[in-house]
Every structure is written in C-alpha cells, then in structure tokens.
Amino acid sequence: MTGDRATLLAVAGLHVRSPEGRDLVSDVSFTLDAGERLGLIGESGSGKSMTALAITGLTPPGMAVSGSVVFDAPGLGRTEVVGAGERRLTSLRGRATSTVFQEPLTALDPLMRVGRQVAEPLRRRRGLRGRALDAAVTAALEEVRLPDPERIARAYPHEISGGQRQRVAIAMALACDPALLIADEPTTALDVTVQADVLALLDGLVRERGMALLFISHDLAVVSRIAERVIVLKNGAAVESGSVDDVVNAPRHPYTRQLVGSARRLDSALDDVLDDWRAP
Length: 280
Ligand SMILES: Nc1ncnc2c1ncn2[C@@H]1O[C@H](COP(=O)(O)OP(=O)(O)O)[C@@H](O)[C@H]1O
Ligand SMILES: [Mg+2]
Hints:
By secondary structure, this protein is of the alpha/beta class. The chain is 42% helix and 25% strand. Strands 6-7-8-3-9-10 form a six-stranded mixed sheet, with helices on both faces. Strands 2-1-4-5 form a four-stranded antiparallel sheet, covered by helices on one side.
C-alpha cells in the first residue's frame, strides 16, 4: 500500500480446493490500491489463473473457495466475492474488474463481426444506441491503437492478426471502465515484437485511466516491465513478495532466483523493442 491511494481489493487467506481435495491456492493474501500495478508470477500450474478466477468469482464448478476477497470500488460499495450470489457478481464484472485472457479467441465469438462484439458491453452497460454506439465502438478500437478501426469493426476475428485480436479483447475489457484490469498472460500467445507492443499499450492505458492492474505471467521479465510490486506463487502459495526491484535484484527464495535467471534471457530479447517506447 502506498498510503495516499484507497484500497481497491483486499484478498485474505484465499484458498481454493479442487473437488478431489487438492489445494490449488493456499492462503494467499494481498491488497491492491486504486491505480496500483501488481504482478503475479509463477511457473505454469502454480495457481495464478485459479487465483484470478477466485477473485472474480469464476472458479470452475466443484471448487471449494474460502477466505475473503473484498472489492471496494468507487460507486459500487464493498463486496465480498467469496460466497456472493451470481447477481452480485454480475454487477461487479466489467465495472469493478475485467479480465484479458491469454488467448483472445476465448473472449471473441468467431461468427460475429468485431464491431458488434465491442458494441455489446457498451450497449448493455452504458445504454448507447445507434450512431452514438457506432462512434463509441470506433473510439474504443482507436484507443487500443488499431489502425483503420472501421475496417476492423467489419472484420470477423479470423480475418485479423493475433495481436489485433488481443487489442480487440482489451477494448472489450475496458468498455465498462473497470477499476481493476486483470491481465492473465495477455502476451504469452504473441510473438516477441507484438508482445512488446501489447505490453506498451496496456501500460499506457492503465496509466491514462488510473486503473489498477493485476498482471499475471510465468515470465518475470514481462512482469517487471509493467508492475510495481510482485507476488511469487509456487504450488498455490505465495513464497515471496515485494517491489519489483527488490525481487529482481535480491530474490530470497530459491524458486524466485530460478525465475530471475530465466527472466534475464527473455529480457535481452525484449530489450531492443521495449527501449523504443520506454525512451521519453
Ligand atoms: N478445472 C480444474 N479442475 C481441477 N484442477 C484444475 C482445474 N483447473 C486448473 N487446475 C489445476 O490447478 C492448478 C493451478 O492451475 P492454474 O491456476 O491454471 O495455474 P497457472 O495459471 O499458474 O498456470 C494446476 O495444478 C491445475 O492442474
Ligand atoms: Mg494460467
């Protein structure tokens, strides 16, 4: 916490147990302030996505979730997600928090033109219709730096590139102006140049809108580019947390040291492309 920002999300003793009785997330606790950028890192299977799903009340059927996840988003009041009913959760989604997933195709309907899909949350949540709606769709696609937004709006998802699809998914996630954006491996499926562009885009959008960000990745190099603070997950438990600088420069847990080692390798690959937009 930074003191002058309000706490937006408080996760305490979060636990997710599978139907077979396996502990997938164990006693995870952290807080996230309005506008703060937190990274969640760990190898594949460490429980990152399950943590994100529990935060949004979307764990698969049969999972036993315990502990506490409290959102305190401006205008929405305080909500305990654990144990909340579907109606309460629906009112939170999109406004308190929205998620961008690794594979943009999971967020997109293959049979629907991109523009109609971006229009849907704008129509539903902001009540826009007709030309106001068309203009909002164009603006949303422009905001994620898609070239020729009118053409993209008329295209089907398979007619645009993977990077463009992820930008569309980001536009949809931002449609209701969430206080917290959860990005779960948003660049993992993209090649390294496109990764850098999408990271730069997310970084800019989060800053411009003052959104909080929970950025999830198996890759410390990527997380350290965008987050201020990180939590390291291993087998569902948080083994280390701290500022990005501390964790990268002085990792305490052997597992974190291993992540730092592999991060250095990708980091040099990212450096060339990222230096361009980091420079003033
Ligand atoms: N629907 C499910 N049913 C049972 N186990 C699951 C399910 N989804 C994920 N898991 C298990 O939960 C653990 C954490 O998975 P996940 O949160 O997806 O990891 P990560 O996102 O860090 O790669 C893994 O061991 C995975 O096999
Ligand atoms: Mg995952």
